[in-house]
Write a structure and sequence with these properties.
Layout: E1 10-13, H1 29-42, E2 46-50, H2 56-68, E3 73-79, H3 82-92, E4 98-105, H4 108-115, H5 119-133, E5 140-145, H6 152-165, E6 169-174, H7 181-194, E7 202-207, H8 214-223, E8 228-231, H9 245-254, H10 270-281, H11 302-310, E9 329-330, H12 338-347, H13 355-371, E10 375-376, H14 377-392, E11 396-406, E12 409-419, E13 422-429, H15 433-445, E14 450-458, E15 467-475, E16 478-486, H16 489-506
Parallel strand pairs: 1-2, 1-8, 2-3, 3-4, 4-5, 5-6, 6-7, 7-8
Antiparallel strand pairs: 9-10, 11-12, 12-13, 14-15, 15-16
Length: 515
């Protein structure tokens, strides 16, 4: 275990890379920048901003993030291929602190079936990629993909070679979420014991949640010498997701009697970060999610309530305030001025591109203030997200709509929308006002899409709260999430559906780093 880092746990956040690989969770550059700013405010050590070789858009987003982030290291993923490493190197060039994270598979099944390479070739490719990455930065991380199913002797060999080549961080990933804590901790311990010069690098772990043990496996790795954990906000990630940043950080912080390390995370920023990521990606947080779920600090049982009222620590091991659960009402209303509005945006870390964007957001704020008595920070985040959503493409635009629902009568909806600048209208019936609205839209666009998900989440509490709707559409192998927010849930649903259609209309494609 490196003596210099024994008391520090490096938090490596991959929400913008691995998290974005969740179906439909792709983000625009502006959305990635907003999340990156918040991750920096949270105190994340390393922000994996994307996979530069995936697309020009990914490379541009990484470079833009690298230009503005000052206190966190900005990282790009790269396969152990010259094209990938050079793309990553160019993308992180503007960063005050940049890292290239290169990887290659080391398990027999991956080497034979996916890479079609012999073990010697894999080691050679790893060494070459690390040395090439060192031309751009001295901060190079190497990952042995599918380490969980790799042979121990070969892992020792490839990690030894990686250290000799100049890698500063060695990552041991449970790529398929196969391990259990006892075995994962033992694997980390054995690697640190057997790899020559293991005390000269930081050992890292990257766990997936296929068996529901990503956070537990990551913590087992920490207990056995790992000093970097790769994780995501809300556990976002492909398939069942990744280890949750909030769970890792709070477990280490709460159980200082067990862990001999701590992170530099500002835990009061955990909940605001969780809500921002949820809002932008369209992945709502389940109410009973640890730390950031709405029920995480709620007590229904009378016995529990009585105990908490008498002494909080009878049933609470953390304070809600410590992770960012607090009153976040905005002391602005419909009479508030533009400067006060702009100041609050700055306090929330929201930076709009120009005066036109500020004016558009302020107009949406005024409209909301007319319909809602209390404005919360989450409402502001949703307003800004709505502005970003509008920038995706305006091929489809909601002009107006009317929905009618009455007991005993089939619900109807009339939709007027702009398609490529020309107005069209349609009226349809459905099983409910939302169903009727979607059918009316389809009567106009004939998209041929499959509705895979319809989800409603209230942004704040109260009957006048904005409803945030996520619509997931699939067509031709592409999957997109559409987002919409409004105090009228049917209007929010129409906005979300059109946002998804607009994303499909752009035709943007992202490469998967493991294909």
């Amino acid at each position: 275990m490196p003596n210099t880092t024994a008391d520090k746990l490096v938090i490596f956040d991959t929400t913008l890379r691995d998290g974005e690989q969740s179906p439909g969770a792709s983000m625009t550059k502006d959305e990635k920048i907003r999340i990156a700013r918040q991750l920096e405010k949270l105190g994340v050590d390393v922000i994996e901003a994307g996979f530069a070789a995936a697309s020009p858009g990914d490379a541009d987003a990484i470079q833009s993030i690298a230009k503005i982030i000052k206190t966190s290291t900005v990282c790009s993923l790269a396969r152990a291929m010259e094209r990938d490493v050079r793309a990553a190197g160019e993308a992180i060039k503007p960063a005050k602190s940049g890292r290239i994270h290169t990887f290659i598979a080391t398990s027999p099944i991956h080497m034979e079936k996916k890479l079609r390479m012999q073990p010697d070739q894999v080691v050679e490719a790893a060494i070459k990629a690390i040395k090439l990455a060192l031309e751009y930065t001295d901060n190079v991380e190497f990952s042995a993909e599918d380490a969980v199913r790799s042979e121990m002797d070969f892992l020792v060999r490839v990690f030894d070679a990686a250290i000799q080549a100049g890698a500063k961080t060695l990552n041991v990933p449970d790529t398929v979420g196969y391990s259990i804590p006892a075995l994962w901790g033992e694997r980390i311990q054995q690697l640190i014991a057997r790899v020559p010069n293991s005390n000269k690098v930081i050992w890292s772990t990257h766990c997936h949640n296929d068996l529901g043990m990503a956070s537990a496996n990551s913590l087992a790795a920490v207990m056995n010498g790992a000093r970097q954990v790769e994780c995501t906000i809300n556990g976002l990630g492909e398939r069942a997701g990744n280890a949750s940043l909030e769970e890792i950080v709070m477990a280490v912080k709460t159980r200082r009697d067990v862990f001999s390390c701590d992170s530099r995370i500002d835990t009061t920023q955990i909940v605001p970060t969780s809500k921002l990521v949820s809002s932008i990606t369209g992945y709502p947080v389940q109410p009973n999610k640890a730390i950031v779920g709405a029920n995480a600090f709620a007590h229904e049982s009378g016995i529990h309530q009585d105990g908490v009222l008498k002494h909080r620590e009878t049933y609470e091991i953390m304070r809600a305030e410590d992770v960012g659960w607090s009153t976040n009402k905005l002391s602005l209303g419909k009479l508030s001025g533009r400067n006060a509005f702009r100041t609050r945006l700055q306090e929330l870390g929201i930076v709009l591109e120009n005066e036109e964007a500020v004016n558009a957001a302020f107009a949406r704020f005024k409209d909301l203030a007319d319909r809602k008595q209390e404005i919360f920070d989450e409402d502001l985040q949703a307003l800004v997200s709505e502005g970003v959503v509008a920038q995706v493409s305006e091929h489809y635009h909601l002009v107006s709509m009317r929905a009618h629902s009455e007991t005993g009568i089939l619900p109807k909806a009339q939709v007027v929308m702009s398609v490529g600048g020309q107005e069209h209208s349609a009226e349809m019936s459905g099983g409910g006002p939302v169903d009727a609205t979607f059918k009316a839209i389809e009567q106009i666009v004939h998209s041929g899409t499959e509705l895979q998900l319809y989800s409603v989440n209230n942004i704040t509490s109260g009957t006048d709260a904005q409803g945030e709707v996520t619509v997931r559409l699939a067509k031709g192998g592409r999957i997109v999430n559409g987002l919409g927010a409004d105090t009228d849930i049917v209007v929010a649903s129409a906005k979300a559906y059109l946002n998804a259609l607009n994303k499909l209309d752009t035709g943007a494609e992202r490469a998967h780093p493991q294909v």
